[in-house]
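Run folding on both entries below.
>entry_1
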Amino acid sequence: MSSERFHQLTTKHSNLRLRAAVQRRELGSTMNEIEHHLSGLDRGIGAAQRMIKNPALLVGGVALVALIGPKRLVRWASRGALLYSTAKRLMRLRRPD
């Protein structure tokens, strides 16, 4: 094998190793994001399960919907969700990385 061919193969090998390292880092970052979102979902499911197991909360929720009305309750919930997501983004912007 010629010295030039050996140099080409060595360079190609180095480039492939660098690309693999970058891809591993990106995959790790993506996995962390997915894990973060899934942990939030897991907490939400756990909270819903705890609420379902508590009959007083179920009766209170049904009474709340009956008293306030489903349309108004949905409107309040959507406004609350918007305020929560806005506050969460603002806190994330203020947090030093």
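>entry_2
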Amino acid sequence: MDLSNSDIIHIKGKNLEYLQFRKLNEFGIKHAYTLKNKGYNFKNHGDISIPDRSYKVLCEELNLNYDNLVRPDQTHTNVVKCVDKFYKTEELKDVDGVLTDKKGISLATTNADCILYLLYDPVKKVVGSIHSGWKGTYLRIIENAIEKMVNTYKSNISDIFVFICPSIRKCHFEVGSDVKDMFEEKFKFTGKLDEIIFDGKKEGKYYIDTVHLNNILLMNKGINKNNIIDSGLCSVCNSDIIGSYRVEGKLFTGGTAIICL
């Protein structure tokens, strides 16, 4: 199977298969979103040696320094941290996004249905890796990340590129009335609830398009629509090759989005 399309390219490396965004490659930015690879997992399910080895192999594939790899703890918050040196994961407790303008520091977040964003400002030379599950989307973490790029690194919003990795899409993100009601109340200000929330196939069930919702928030912030580049891939629809919690359950295959200046 080849997942390549007009915006992404499917790489079959020496040990791992992963996706890269064509635009980030044009910029010369090292990055990847990993697919399912037998024997590798970027999520710790009780044996830390597995994700550690997986990251070491990925860094070798991309010619990155594993010793400068920064991985936040990820607990579905809206906290984004700017880093200028190596941090251990335990030092980034309750952090779900990281940004840097330092060359050689690799930033990585993990998912298995949640949205992962790679950010890049080619003018101020800033990169980011952001984890936004439905809770992070509800807490508007992507807006926090953009605000930090502007306030900390003096990025011009019109210069920022946003890259959307594979994630669960509206075709499969089914929720109950409790979550639907939360999103309706929180995001009614957009005036676009009819583009975000849809009736489900079962009574009392609904579909939420979190990708489109975040795009609305990004464009409201001033991000250029043409600078939002989506892989267009649903993790559930492609669960044979992309990790999905909804399909695999608790022992899901964790994918990672890694980026480095």
